[in-house]
UniProtKB/TrEMBL annotation:
Residues 1-29 form the signal peptide. Transmembrane segments: none annotated. Gene3D superfamilies: HAD superfamily/HAD-like. This is Secreted acid phosphatase. The keyword Glycoprotein applies. It comes from Streptomyces canus. Keywords: Glycoprotein, Signal. InterPro entries: Acid_phosphat_B-like, APS1/VSP, HAD-like_sf, HAD_sf. Pfam families: Acid_phosphat_B.
Length: 265
């Protein structure tokens, strides 16, 4: 993930002030409001909405977890259901045509849920704390995603991972993916991570050794182009929690997983 470019919400002070002084934000009798069409959604209320969406609650170890019965879980289940039906059909078609079908998964918040980090740090980002969090290799699964990885493999579809995590984070990422049961093709030929020091030649349009100017879309679509054009696969589906995971082509279909906690351009 190109975390340095992400736009994060900052919450604490606003949440307290908003809740105490203005309640739900609705004007009451005798109050006058600007009726502005430009005032953004109240950030304190947004944080509450996000908590409700995930059903966020601390577990016995104080780790924030999403609820498997939350609206978030239900949204994921409907994406998964549609994706399974499509993968089944698209895989049959591809095999019939003699193509090699593949699926591509982003990692952060597509397979590994970062809710505990986001909630703990009020939806902000810090390179040091983020790196520590990733290296603990203890993130829970995004509900249903490991099962979707296994489903694709069972249907004869090659599974690839396309992540903005760095090469330095490879062992932690692989360990964490194994732990959640996404234990398919976790080798260097299938897990594509960002190598800024030694970028692959297929990214030469935006990266050479020592010079990296690739946007997330350039990096991720460039990697998918490599999988299709150089490795000979037909990417039938691409899964990500950010639009920048999905834009730029080289996938027959894209699946956007929900993530209201940050935006990666
Ligand atoms: Mg992601």
């Amino acid at each position: 993930m190109h975390k340095s470019l992400r736009i994060a919400a900052v919450a604490t002070a606003c949440a307290v002030a908003g809740g105490a002084l203005y309640g739900a934000g609705a004007a009451t009798a005798g109050q006058s409001t600007a009726n502005s069409t430009h005032e953004p959604y109240n950030i304190g209320l947004l944080v509450k909405d996000i908590d409700a969406y995930y059903g966020t609650a601390a577990d016995a170890n104080g780790v924030y977890q999403a609820s498997p019965t939350s609206p978030y879980a239900k949204d994921l289940a409907s994406v998964d259901k549609a994706a399974r039906k499509y993968i089944d059909q698209a895989a049959r078609k591809a095999h019939h045509k003699g193509e090699k079908p593949a699926v591509v998964f982003d990692i952060d918040d597509t397979l590994l849920l970062s809710l505990d980090y986001e909630k703990r740090y009020n939806y902000t980002y810090n390179a040091t704390t983020w790196a520590d969090y990733v290296n603990r290799a203890d993130r829970p699964a995004v509900f249903g995603s490991p099962e979707l990885v296994q489903y694709a493999e069972k249907k004869g579809v090659e599974v690839f991972y396309n992540s903005g995590l760095s090469e330095a984070q490879r062992s932690a990422a692989v360990e964490n993916l194994k732990k959640i049961g996404a234990d398919v093709n976790l080798d260097t030929d299938h897990v594509f991570l960002k190598d800024k020091a030694n970028p692959p030649s297929y990214l030469s349009a935006c990266a050479t050794p020592g010079t990296w100017t690739c946007t997330t879309v350039q990096y991720k679509s460039g990697t998918r182009a490599h999988i299709e054009k150089d490795l000979g696969y037909e990417i039938i589906a691409n899964f990500g929690d950010q639009y920048s995971d999905l834009d730029g082509g080289y996938a027959d279909r894209t699946y956007k997983l929900p993530n209201p906690t940050y935006f990666v351009s």
